[in-house]
Amino acid sequence: MEASNDLIALAGNPNAGKTTLFNALTGSIEKVGNYPGVTVSVKQGGMRSAHGKALDLIDLPGCYSLEGGSPDQQIARDVLRGDNAKIPKPDLVVCVLDASNLERHLQIALEIIELEIPVVVALNMVDLAEKAGLRLDPVKLSEELGVPVVPIQADKGKGLVELKQSLGHPFPATPEIHWETGDAESRRAFGLQVADLAARRPEAHTSTVSDKLDRILLHPVLGWVCFIGIMFTLFWSIFSFAGIPMGWIESLQDWTTGIIEGAMAEGDLRDLITQGIIGGVGSVVIFLPQILLLFFFIGLMESSGYMSRAAFLMDGFMSRVGLSGKAFLPLLSSYACAIPGVMATRTIDSPKERLVTIFVAPWMSCSARLPVYLLLVPMLLGGSEGGAKQALIFLSIYVLGTLTAFVVARILRGKLGPDEVPTHFLLELPPYRFPQWKYIFRHVLDRGWAFLKNAGTVILGIMILLWAATTYPKLDSDDPAEVLSHTIVGRISHVIEPIVKPMGFDGRTGTAILTSFAAREVFVGSMAQLFHVDEADEDSETRNSIRDQLAKETWPDGRKMFSPAAVISLLIFYIYALQCLPTTAVVARETGSWKWGIGQFIFMTVFAGVASLIVYQLAKLFGLA
Amino acid sequence: MESPDWQAWTALGIVAITVILFAVRAKRSNSSGCSNCGKDDGCS
């Protein structure tokens, strides 16, 4: 940020459209969503005024008041008061207000005006307000507040030129204040009076499309039926629609392997390329279409406004486990990735509730677990992919992780005791909107690229090392089992087999689990390498090849190695284990202590091991091994 | 076709480079406090 440029801050209530406006003004692609609390940290960017002057722009986390105690509110308050050590006090604040909820959104604007910083009001979503029957009067609003008011539609880019013009020098003077400064009641009364004058409501309340939809989607019974139906459709779609692009990736993999084998003589380098790199990395990359579909559906729910309804439905349930509906959105974000989920807990006021939410967030099955589930689930149903039964098992896996998180949250919340200052849950239910396709697709592509980047760097490196560990030291023998047991992996497997055997795994599966502590999805590639899945078979499909190979594996006494009990035990381990070092680092940063990060890692790993052991031993008793 | 020696040496070279890159990465992560996870929502 150049010190010479004027600094403009975007502030306002959550879900007022600040980030959409930030993106429109700066050309950035920061994440937006039609639910409160998407922005939990300060985002920075550059823009130019209507006269070409360079300006620095910051997007502050949304908050209903500057008096609250949650970390995101503290950030916004400190920046606006000039108390933030890293960000200077803004020269001008653009208050972004939702025109259809003016009476509530005006409160934060009045608080900011009290700080005596130049303010411009961006009256956003005027189209939705007018559709709802409101008669807006921006001129009256400007007169009453004493600051410029610009009507805009940030998502469609309307009114931005006028807004940029209002950001030129000289900045508007701080207005005369018509209420008692620092008195919340006086401020509230003035806000209601201004809202009444500037946004006239129709005499008779007309039912909007959102009202009609909410009658079904928030219904105590129908709402839950719809929620479960939506989740089921999501998982079913992930299975059904991804098959075709996955086939293309497999064909490309086979074609490349064929070319290399045709061009190179047999040798270590050829093995490294075909088995280690193409086989190992390819078996992870194959899941890209499913990852993209998952993020597409999450984006769709966020953008349409359904995410807030899901949080509303869950609030009653959440309160029974000692959390509020505010904890639901971070937990829901963790289904995509625990890192943004942990960061989203900044919206939670209660420090104890925030700590508990951070602690259980990694139990929401994130997208990195998806490749492991996709490999293992069909093994429970005879090997073939697709169909409603697999979607049901998938749904059960997600439900199991979620329920366990709630039970542990309940226990932990009880141990931590009640809050010193009671907090209240306030959730905004925004009107349903047509999804912002541009942002959804950009976000999906970003996540896809992050997945590929990970596959091309960390996973590639691990696969190369794993190939070396399954190749060296070499033994001159014709027996593949003897050759493998002589290698580094063979020796490690030998050591860890007694530990993992009671969980139903042999030493090679144990080694694959060890490799996946760097990144969960590595497990699939590791299994492909450790069980010597032949990628070059004609008409073979990689995932089916791995599954076919695993299905053939037996214990020395002839029993099937990957019995239903062993597969369930593996699934249980991956549902519960925290195999993501970046999450541990972010938890340590957000809680301000490595004690929580490392404690969480140890607790979840031990929990996963014990749960896996119990499940395998029980399944064995029922004859599933 | 007999395995030429260059393949074994090249493969070993790639493995050695990978080990060095991981070591450098780990050292950098420790000194900067960043895990370089590649996740865009991470350390913003």
Kindly report the spatial arrangement of strands forming the biggest sheet of chain A. 2-3-1-4-5-7
Please report the number of helical segments of chain A: 26
Span of the ends, CA to CA of chain B: 53 Å
Rounded to an integer in angstroms, the radius of gyration calculated over CA atoms of chain A is: 28 Å
Give helix % range of chain B. Answer: 55-70%
CATH architecture of the largest domain in chain A: 3-Layer(aba) Sandwich
The CATH fourth-level homologous superfamily of the largest domain in chain A: P-loop containing nucleotide triphosphate hydrolases
CATH class type of the largest domain in chain A: Alpha Beta
Number of domains of chain A: 3
Q: Would you write up a description of this structure?
A:
The complex is a heterodimer of chains A (625) and B (44). Chain A has three domains: 195 residues, Rossmann fold, CATH 3.40.50.300; 177 residues, no CATH class; 163 residues, no CATH class. Chain A has 26 helices and eight strands. In chain A, strands 2-3-1-4-5-7 form a six-stranded mixed beta sheet. Chain A has a two-stranded antiparallel sheet with strand order 6-8. In chain A, helix 5 runs antiparallel to helix 7. The longest helix of chain A has 42 residues. Chain A starts with 5 loop residues before the first strand and ends with a helix. About 1% of the residues of chain A have low confidence. Chain B is built from one helix and no strands. Classes of the chains: A alpha/beta (625), B mainly alpha (44). The interface between A and B is medium-sized, with 33 and 26 residues.
